[in-house]
Structure formats: structure tokens, C-alpha cells
Hints:
Blueprint: H1 7-17, E1 24-26, E2 37-41, E3 47-50, H2 52-56, H3 65-87, E4 92-100, E5 103-110, E6 116-120, H4 121-127, E7 129-131, E8 136-138, H5 142-157, E9 162-164, E10 174-179, E11 184-189, H6 190-199, H7 204-222, E12 227-229, E13 239-244, E14 249-254, H8 255-277
Antiparallel strand pairs: 1-2, 2-3, 4-5, 5-6, 7-8, 9-10, 10-11, 12-13, 13-14
The structure holds zinc ion (2 copies).
One zinc ion binds near residues 43, 46, 66 and 67.
Amino acid sequence: MFKTKNHSEFIQVFKKKRRDTNEYEFLSEYISSNNPIKVKHKNCGNEFTTTPSSMVRSRFPKQCPYCSKTKIKNSTEDRIKKEVAVIGNHQFDFIKCSYENGMHKLTLLHKTCGGELDVYRNNMNTIGLRCPVCHKNVRNKITKKKRKKIKMKVEEVSRGKYTLLTDYQGYNEVVEVFDKEKSVHKVITFSKLMKDIKNSYETQEAFNQSLQSWVKVYIQKESNGRFSLKSDYKGYDKTIEVFDHHLQKNIQLKYASLNLKIKKIQLMNTLDAELEAD
Ligand SMILES: [Zn+2]
Ligand SMILES: [Zn+2]
């Protein structure tokens, strides 16, 4: 709290406390430190009402509300533009962004075909971008990682029996595998491969246990130690419990949602690293 007797004394304090005093003009007389005063931001012409004490406080003195809002808006938009560039492999141009239902909705232009698309920022960050006009998917870097993970999963869950020789293309697509026990190459759909692996276990229980320990290691490793599995893995669409080491509490969610969460954290880390390197 400060005490000044009149307007000119207040102006003196104001000039002493701030470096940007020439940006502001007072349109009404100072009455007391907490009686509203009318201020004009000369840079933009915006007029606002605040208390004299908020104009001279040492921590976060009052700024022009119009300009500080625009500043935040610009920095968010900058960030979004960079996300579009990185995730879309520089194939999309940013047109505009609006805020709807608590989410950023982006309008983008696919440079190759000139088609426009609307996408939620949240979706773009988890599943990448897809142009609806030419149906072209721009996969983000996580997909390459996913293939690597599936390769690891096959090795581990099959207890070293199978090695994937070609990339995973989808659950019902064929892959080439090497069967180490029989020393033969096989071309087989991925779903059939998983069934074979399952059948190589004496019981369903034993298979689940093996999958369970794989999931446990996988979650810990992929989330960089943020999540640990607390309950049994029962399937992709089933709810599991994990301990979130950041929030220091247990959370319950579907395994599929946990995967999206992890994917998003990874993507944000990749983005941050790329934006820093800019
Ligand atoms: Zn302003
Ligand atoms: Zn297109």
C-alpha cells in the first residue's frame, strides 16, 4: 500500500515505479490508492479503469488489458503454426484458428491439392493430419516408433520365437516373420500371428501373464517413468489403473486412452525439442 495526497504526487510515484510510464495517460483524477482511475494506453488507444495501486505495484503492475490479451493470442497462434508445420511435415498452411467448446479449432490448407480442412488441435496432436480432399495421411513421427514397438512386442510376447522382418501395416495386413524354432520364413497376417503366439502358451492365463509383464515395462518405458501399472491388463478397450507419478495419485482409464496420453506427451516433447532447435 502506498499513500499520496494528490494526483501529481501519484504521478511521481508512478514514474518512479515503472519504465513504461510514457505509454500510459490518466484520464481521471487520482482520489485514493483504491479509488478507480481511468487510464488510456497510448500505444493502442484502449481505455480501461483500474485502481492507482495496481498501476504502481512492484509485482505484475497492471498492463493494458487489450494488448496483453493480444500478446497471449499471438504467442498461442505462433505455437500452433509451428505444431502444424512439424506434425504436417510442412504440407499444410495455417489459415485461422478459433476457440470452440474449450478447444482450438484450426482451419488449414493442404498445399498439394488446395483443399481446406478443419481440425481440432487436440486431434492433430494425437493422430496427425489427414487431408479429406485427397485422403492423404501425414503420419507423424510416432508411427515409426509404433512399428518398432510392435516388433519388440512380438519378440517378447512370443518369447523370442518370432522376429518381424517387415513393418507392421495394420492388424489384418500381412507381415513377414522369421520363426527361430523352425528356422523358416513365414508370410502371415498380423492377427493370425498373434493367435499363433497365444496358442503357443499352455494356458490363456500364461499368455495373459506374459502380455501383462510386457505392458508393464512398456508403459513405464514409454512414459519415461511417469506411469506405473497398478492393475491387470485385460485388453485394449478395458479400464486399467495406473499410478501417475506427476500427479502423485492413482488414475483409472482405458488402456487405449493411456496410450493416447503417452503418445501426446511424447509428441509434445518432440515438438518442444524441435521448436527449441529453431
Ligand atoms: Zn494497449
Ligand atoms: Zn489434399
